[in-house]
Amino acid sequence: MKKSMAMPSLQEHSADRFVELQTFVQVAQQGSFSAAARLREVSPSAVSKIVARLETRLGVQLLRRSTRRLELTAEGEQLLEQGRQLLADWLALESSVTRQGQPTGVVRINASSSTGNRLLVPLVGPLMQTWPGLQLDLSFTDHVVDLIAARADIALRWGELPSSDMVARKLGHTRQVIVASPDYLQRFGRPQHPDELAGHVRIGWNYPRAIPHWPFVVAGNAVTVSMGEVLRVNDGEAMANLAKAGAGLARLSLYHAWDDLHAGRLQALLEDFNPGDLQPIHAVYVGKPGQLPVRTRAVLDFLASHVDLSHAEQMPAGLLPGRA
């Protein structure tokens, strides 16, 4: 009666067979179990057992052992030749889809209109020169998008982030400053204390996570002033433009207000009461950091090394009122 042969399981075709083949090739190339054991950082007896298991499974002798040397059988020679090529092909395949390979393919990036144009656009040229195999798909919108639904790989977002399944990589941070146009201040006066803000139009944010107050430090104590009835927008560039047009006071990031402050189109207010809080910007993505496509990781690494907000951390003394 013939003994029925069980079909090999998927598990038998998995990592164990790869380890067996890799170990055998290392033994054959190194010429000893001890040398292969040092490469694998295991004991020689462990290597011997792996090779013996491979021989048992194949039903052939691969090595002839003596006290002085190892010699390949004909079957061992065949397995070494084809196994070496198989391992090389596998490593080449891994390299093409992991961080070892050159980044190629499409990376979709989402950002607000102001952040996209001011921060991201200047970096696109250098990024494409660094990784010419990349294709970038940029979407600038003032709505917070769902990365999965929008098929976006990376989103650039300001402010503290809510808890979610997304992963965030901090790119930098910027100081906050209250500003107004010279025309507005001439018409309505310059507030000298946070208590005077009630008599001024304040431009705020209209997105759901917007903080409904402005923070200050008065006599060493943290205080807040409610926004009240204000003009609301959802974009930093629009807020800066409204402030420059004399529509009201705005609390902007120094990053967004930098050029206008230097040009005199905006002036800083209430700096003696500024709490010095910093607003972060993150590159947000979905997935585990160690398992990202090489193209996505390449863009994240480039942004982390090239986004420079160091100038936006401290107000230059020359731009402070009465301290020029």
From TrEMBL:
Keywords: DNA-binding, Transcription, Transcription regulation. The keyword Protein biosynthesis does not apply. Residues 21-73 form the HTH lysR-type domain. It comes from the Bacteria. GO terms for molecular function: DNA-binding transcription factor activity; sequence-specific DNA binding. GO terms for biological process: DNA-templated transcription. The keyword Cytoplasm does not apply. InterPro entries: LysR-type_TF_proteobact-type, LysR_HTH_N, LysR_subst-bd, WH-like_DNA-bd_sf, WH_DNA-bd_sf. Belongs to the LysR transcriptional regulatory family. This is D-malate degradation protein R.
